[in-house]
Structure formats: structure tokens, C-alpha cells
Design a protein that fits this description.
- It is a single chain.
- With about 220 residues, the chain is α/β, with parallel strands linked by helices.
- It has an eight-stranded mixed β-sheet, with helices on both faces.
- Helix 5 links the parallel strand 5 and strand 6.
Length: about 220
């Protein structure tokens, strides 16, 4: 969902270059230099208003996190939170998930989170889904051999499509939950804004975790 234009967004972004990159291709392979400590890097593609990524950074100080968001207004909302929180293990990236191999070097990322991505339900828009094979190829290239992909959605159609897409690509499923909030994983689960909204009205939340086969698997 596209947020309303926020006229203050551009000024806030320009005033905080140490927290956000708008030309991230210049840092590929050197993301660790943006953080206080060198730690495994995890990215969320499509971070929205940033509730998930900021809470993850607080919960796991031994990991570095990057919020990847294409909407300037949305990333500016996350930046507002980061200006207040000053989390040393959180960076922001204004860009699209279709350019990850430009933004990150091979094997630079330990894990990728996809939370409540746009389902793009029409068949002609399949290539825009973040679990389409071209996106999976991007994740695989930037991800370390032992890295993982975690995906959550309230959309059953997108979840079923994603299971098929990951399987067809040759990924291995480590966990599949058809009702996350009624599973053992609910205790440790960090929710997004959409997730809180959907779960409160009784919608089922779907989740999967998967990894890419190694060359010698």
C-alpha cells in the first residue's frame, strides 16, 4: 500500500546520510562499514513503516539489519524512528528489491525477510511478486551459503504460489506454518504493522522459512 506523500521526507533523508543510503550501489561489499560492529547482516525487502525491522534490531543487538524500501515516504517514517532510537545495528536503503545484486556483494547477506509483500494477484503481474524466480535468484546471489529466507503473509494465494515457486527453484523448506499465531513460533514472532491489524481481526498468518541448496548438496 502506497503511503501519502510526506513533504518533509526528502529533507529528513538528506539530513541523515549516516543512517540511510539513496545510492546504495556505491557501498556493495562494504556494508559492514556502516555499522558500529561487524556482525551478520539481515535485510527486510519492503519494510513499510519499519515496525518489524526496528524491533528486530532492538531484540537482536548481535545482528545488523537493513531496511530496504522503495517508497520515499515509507522509508522516511522508518528514518524518523531511527533518529529517535539511534540503533547502531540498523541501516536504511531507499531502493527496489529487483536491484539487490547491485546493492549487495555476493554472499554479503545472512538472511532475507519478506513480510506481507504485495500479492500482485493478476497473472500478468506474476513477475512483480517478491517470490518470483528472478527475485529468488537475487536473494541467492547475495546470500551466504547457510543463509535463510523467511516469508510471512496473510494472503493464502500468494503463500501457495510462493511454496510452488520456491520448490520449483530448488529451495529447501525448513518450516511451514499455516497459522503462525497458533504455533510454537508465535512466542518469538516479531509482528509488522499489517500483521497486528490482520491478526486482530482474526485473519490467519502464513509463514515459511527456506534455504538454497548448496552446490554440493
Amino acid at each position: 500500500m502506497r503511503l501519502r506523500n510526506k513533504p518533509w521526507a526528502k529533507d529528513l533523508i538528506e539530513a541523515n546520510p549516516e543512517k540511510i543510503l539513496v545510492s546504495p550501489e556505491t557501498i556493495a561489499g562494504h556494508w559492514q562499514s556502516r555499522f558500529a560492529q561487524e556482525q551478520p547482516i539481515y535485510i527486510e525487502v519492503g519494510s513499510g513503516k519499519g515496525q518489524f525491522i526496528t524491533q528486530m534490531a532492538q531484540k537482536y543487538p548481535d545482528r545488523n539489519f537493513i531496511a530496504v524500501e522503495i517508497q520515499e515516504s515509507a522509508i522516511a517514517v522508518i528514518l524518523q524512528k531511527q533518529v529517535e532510537l539511534q540503533l547502531p545495528n540498523l541501516q536504511l536503503l531507499l531502493g527496489t528489491g529487483a536491484s539487490l545484486t547491485t546493492f549487495f556483494a555476493d554472499n554479503e547477506v545472512a538472511g532475507v525477510y519478506l513480510n506481507f509483500s504485495d500479492p500482485w494477484p493478476k497473472t500478468r503481474h506474476e513477475k512483480r511478486r517478491l517470490t518470483f524466480k528472478t527475485f529468488l535468484a537475487e536473494y541467492q546471489q547475495i546470500m551466504q551459503a547457510d543463509g535463510y529466507l523467511r516469508f510471512k503473509t496473510d494472503n493464502q494465494g500468494l503463500f501457495e504460489y510462493s511454496l510452488c515457486s520456491l520448490n520449483a527453484y530448488g529451495m529447501l523448506l525448513d518450516d511451514v506454518s499455516l497459522d503462525l499465531h497458533k504455533s510454537d513460533l508465535a512466542i518469538e514472532n516479531v509482528q509488522t504493522e499489517y500483521e497486528e491489524k490482520f491478526s486482530k481481526r482474526g485473519d490467519r498468518i502464513y509463514r515459511l522459512e527456506a534455504h538454497f541448496k548448496s552446490d554440493n548438496a
